[in-house]
Specification:
seven-stranded parallel beta sheet, Rossmann fold, alpha/beta, two-stranded antiparallel sheet
């Protein structure tokens, strides 16, 4: 029996640093190598870099777009999903995935992390947000050392 493909979301800012873009591209390439399907918000920055890496590695990329046009997707999105929902599409991005890898990001990324954790979807963090509650660290985001570690942790959490 053929093994089921895993859906992993990569989230992060539409504006990102060159280092975040490098990490995202490596994450995308590693997801393709592990035969996982990459889900993202479909725009630029971390999303584009991750899709570029996945596409270069022969992987499949899905972009859940905030607007009403397929043409807004980055050039590496193979399956653009038009929602016309704006930022509300963040919920669809994380709910479409079995695990989430967060790279960098602003408040939109933080909202996606919150939606994922609230819905029991594991989150792996790579140079992203950290959480605390009542002045105590909240370790809900599993930290990764590098892109390969991030992908391995995400896939292991899905397979467990």
């Amino acid at each position: 029996m053929k093994e089921k493909k895993r859906f992993i979301a990569v989230i992060g800012g539409s504006d990102c640093t060159p280092e975040e873009a490098r990490l995202a591209e490596e994450v995308g390439r590693e997801l393709a190598r592990k035969d996982a399907i990459l889900v993202c918000g479909g725009l630029g920055g971390v999303m584009e870099a991750a899709c570029r890496g996945a596409s270069a590695g022969g992987g499949l990329t899905i972009g859940i777009l905030p607007g009403g046009s397929r043409q807004t997707a980055n050039p590496y999105v193979q399956i653009p999903v038009v929602t016309n929902l704006g930022e509300a599409r963040n919920v669809i991005v994380v709910k479409s995935a079995e695990a989430v890898i967060a790279i960098g990001g602003g408040y939109g990324t933080l909202s996606e992390i919150g939606h994922a954790l609230r819905n029991g979807i594991p989150v792996v963090g790579l140079n992203t947000w950290s959480l605390s509650r009542n002045d105590r660290p909240d370790n809900s985001i599993v930290l990764a050392k590098n892109p390969v570690d991030a992908v391995n942790k995400a896939l292991n959490m899905v397979n467990d």
